[in-house]
Amino acid sequence: MLKIQKLGSFQDISNPSSKYDVTDTALAISNDNDVTLWDLNEGSQDEGILLHGHHTQVTTVTFSRHHDNDDIILATGASDYIIMWKLGEVLAAHNNGTLVRGHIFSSTSGESPNILRFSPRTIYFCDVTDNQLIVYDYDNTKIIFTESCRDVSSMDFQSDTRVVTVTTAGRINIWDVAQCCLVWQHTMVQGLSCVTANEEKLFVTSVSSVVSFTTPNPELRFHFEKDLDLCLLHHSWDGDVTKGIVLSLLCVESPHCDVISRSSVTFVLCAMNRVIVAINCDNQESIVMQYIDCDVIEPIVASQACLSQDPKTKKITCCVTSMLDPTTHVFHLTLPTPNNPLYNPTTLTPTFVSSTPLADTSPLRGQIKFNKTATPTNDQPITFKNKVKSSGYKSSPRMSMFTPKTNAPRKVTKQLKLKCRETEPSDWSMLMTSQGGATGCSAPVSVRSIAVDETTKQFASVFNDNSVQVMSLPLLASNNKVKHVTGASNTLGCSWSHGASWHGASRHGGWLLTHTNDSVAVWGSPYTNTAALTFSIFGDEDKKQHQTKEIVSSQFYYLDKFILVGCGNSLSLFKFHLEEKCGDEIKRYLWKGKSKLVCSQEATSGQNISSFAAANNYYSYIMLVGGSDRNINLYDFNVCKAIGSYKNAHSKPTHTINIATGSSLVTSSNDLFMTSAISDGIKIWDLRTTSSILKLNQHSNKTKSSSCLTPCGRYIATTCDEKSVYVYDCRSYFPLQILKLKSKPTCLRFTPCSTQLLVGTDSSKISSFSVKK
Fold it and tell me: DSSP state, 199?
């Protein structure tokens, strides 16, 4: 949460027409023709320092830091002069008892400055009047740029050479003062009141308290637009404020853990009448905090507010003037960071990779007991009985009395050839090209889901007519061989096993897992006629439950040792055993697979599980479960209990959870996963943090979309409501590429080696995309 600490209150030092600015060490407030400077350091004097130099009413004040001697500078403006006050000289003169003097920077010729601003390194100084924008060279006190402008409500420096202005008519202008030209312009629908910017980001607020975040490129792209009134209305905090006006806006950087090569996270602070709202620009989550006054019980209602951040110490200071009494309050703000206990209160950080041994009562120790079969007659020992006339055995015993030594063949040592990687992971930021496609059905039906097998280089697709097909990779225009899983009917989803060296899968191909509303089946190559294992998750006593609940999803788990099934609001763990088929063609239909329910636990407090995911290519205890209550729970199957939860992860229940588990070619060094929900975009999470680290919502997903994450955890592909596929980089807000299709995409999947992207459409066609070499 956002931490706010009060530094002090100042009584009767301002009037309704006062202007002020604040740093972490000083506060300046105008009062008619004079300015009072207050030292905020501990142990400083209780009385302010009076700065007298103007002959008319002071209309604006602003602080900055000089880039040479690191001295704080205070600029005051009136209709007569612009005066610069160096705080080091002011404090020295005040302590010596001499007259405090300022330096006249420029004459304003009767036009009162409305806004004064320093550039980040104090190279330029900007003055905004009612009709003109003037930029000075600070060291030479010369005018280098002038521009006629009206109705400017706020301005800020985006960099040392770029000035951003917003007007009450909704126009945004960015000027390059070094080149003396307009570099970017945009007009909003509503009037704008505040602006703050840095080198890459631009934030503006409208008169209706809507914060917009954009990147000033030739092609305008808004990252998000957040209504602060709705934020206050739906935020779970102890207060009754539902509306407000943005009085001040500030863009700040807060230290952040390096989870995806991001050294910091950007926050935009909005000071309103009664609260401060901090918006995380990466995940768009907001934090609300009231102005706290320990001396009075009533909350503070601000008429004016000012925010600032020291460029070196990174301290954030907020100054507000009370609307009900002439009191000015100063606060220090602390943003949540991973190093701050406010950010991650848990001491034990979970991880996907199992780091502790199995518990004695863990369901992952479950086994299937087999009945002991009778020993065949030929394998029984020879016995001699007195009452039996026959010898008692049917064949001579199998034993060898003597084996002569012959010339044994020489052992030929084979040189082991190192298997090099067939290909390297692709850079999906490069231009992509279509490699071809295949049509699964003669009738135009939608492709429901796609699952890729890394070892056997094939993939399975489920269609809306409940049929399943298996195709080989790579999917080229000349390679359209299709295997129909003829025995699978009413199939809703499928997934592949991880290993292909167990139970004869290396000879026949990988094992395919499919599920219907109430049953699960495991198929072996050639995926026809009869499944190797079929079982229903409902018993005879659960017929009523079967009518109201159905299987959400199923997958292999714990390196193919278990089958995990989600149904209703519970997760069921099944131990299974598959016997290899007999080589006899007459007995090739005889499968002897067995299954056993090991554990069934309630995994969410909601009525149903909306989605779940678990790693299968390494030993992992952690399960991610999304429920209809919009929460994402962390469930540990080693101890059979929930160990954490992400409350209100999305505005709607999550329909996709994907873990960056890595592959044989790509390893994932962090605990990243992604989630997706209808009308709420995609969120990227790190298991070591308590909130999402990035939100991607440049695509339209008013309906259920399909999203997938590359095994390396760097790229994300998602379908949208339009006939296109968006490819994102997890380190950027905006898509890398937008793939246009002739039909609406319904599902997609990266190959485990991240070299191909398979996209299924509503016309029963599956297309393949790869990076253009």
Answer: S
Q: Which residues, given as ranges, of the chain have pLDDT below 70? A: 1-2, 42-46, 66-69, 218-220, 235-242, 255-263, 293-298, 337-349, 370-433, 435-436, 476-480, 500-509, 539-548, 580-592, 663-670, 754, 772-773
Taking residue 670's Cβ as centre, other Cβ atoms within 10 Å add up to: 16
Query: Tokens 């740093």 correspond to what residue?
Result: 23
The C-alpha angle 730, 735, 741, rounded to 5 degrees, equals 125
Whether the link from the prior residue into 357 is cis, omega within 30° of 0, is no
CA pair distance 364, 573, nearest whole angstrom = 9
Strands 458-463 and 327-334: unpaired
Count of Cβ atoms closer than 10 Å to residue 159 Cβ: 18
C-alpha distances out from residue 449 to 463, 628, 745, 768, Å: 7, 21, 11, 15
Report whether 653 contacts 677 (CB < 8 A): yes
* Contact between residue 166 and residue 153 where contact means Cβ atoms under 8 Å apart: yes
Do 204 and 189 meet the contact criterion of CB atoms below 8 Å apart?
Answer: no
Identity at 163, one-letter amino acid code: V
Residue linked to tokens 């060296």: 501
Dihedrals phi, psi of 566, to nearest 5 degrees: -110, 125
DSSP state, residue 339: T
Distance, CA of 92 to CA of 99 (rounded, Å): 10
Q: Select from 204, 162, 166, 167 the least CA-distant residue to 183.
A: 162
**How many CB atoms are located within 10 Å of the residue 67 CB?**
16
Per DSSP, the three-state class of 704 is coil
Residues 6+ apart with CB under 8 A from 294: 6
Q: Are 479 and 469 in contact (CB under 8 A)?
A: no
Residue 378 DSSP code: G
Tokens in use for 304? 């004016």
Contact of 436 with 477, CB cutoff 8 Å: yes
Q: Would you tell me how many other CB atoms lie within 10 Å of the CB of residue 261?
A: 8
CB 52 within 8 A of CB 92: no
CB 726 within 8 A of CB 697: no
Number of H helices, E strands in the chain: 4, 56
Q: What integer pLDDT is reported at residue 63 of this predicted model?
A: 93
| HSE, side-chain direction, 13 A CA sphere, residue 602 | 5
Tokens 């905006």 correspond to 734
As a whole number of angstroms, the distance between CA 764 and CA 441 comes to 6
Burial 471-509 (b: 16+ CB within 10 A, else e): bbbebeeeeeeebebeebeebbbbbbbbbbeebbbeebb
Which class for 418: exposed (0-12), middle (13-18), buried (19 or more C-beta within 10 A)? exposed
pTM, two decimals, is: 0.78
Say if residues 549 and 538 touch (Cβ distance below 8 Å). Answer: no
Provide, for the chain, the percentages of residues in helix, strand and coil under a 3-state DSSP scheme, each rounded to the nearest 5: 5, 40, 55
Report which of 202, 209, 203 is spatially closest to residue 232, judged by C-alpha positions.
209
Helix (H) or strand (E) holding 505: helix 505-508
Query: Which tokens is 361 given?
Result: 């009562």
Give the amino acid at 202. L
Residue ranges of the alpha helices (H) in 616-758?
none
Q: Strands, E, within 617-721: which ranges? A: 622-627, 632-636, 641-646, 654-659, 672-677, 682-686, 694-696, 707-709, 715-719
- Please provide residue 228's backbone torsions phi and psi, each rounded to the nearest 5 degrees: -70, -30
Residues 693 and 613: their CA atoms lie apart, in Å, by: 19
DSSP secondary structure, 525-539, as one string: TT--SS-SEEEES--
Sheet order of strands, 570-577 included:
551-557, 562-567, 570-577, 594-602
The pLDDT value given to residue 143? 93
The Cα 638–Cα 357 span in angstroms is 9
Q: Which residues on neighbouring strands pair with residue 494, listed in sequence order?
A: 514
DSSP at 540: G
Three-point CA angle 88, 93, 94, nearest 5°: 100
- 766, 725, 749: which is closest to 479 by C-alpha? 766
Q: pLDDT exceeding 90 applies to what percent of the chain?
A: 25
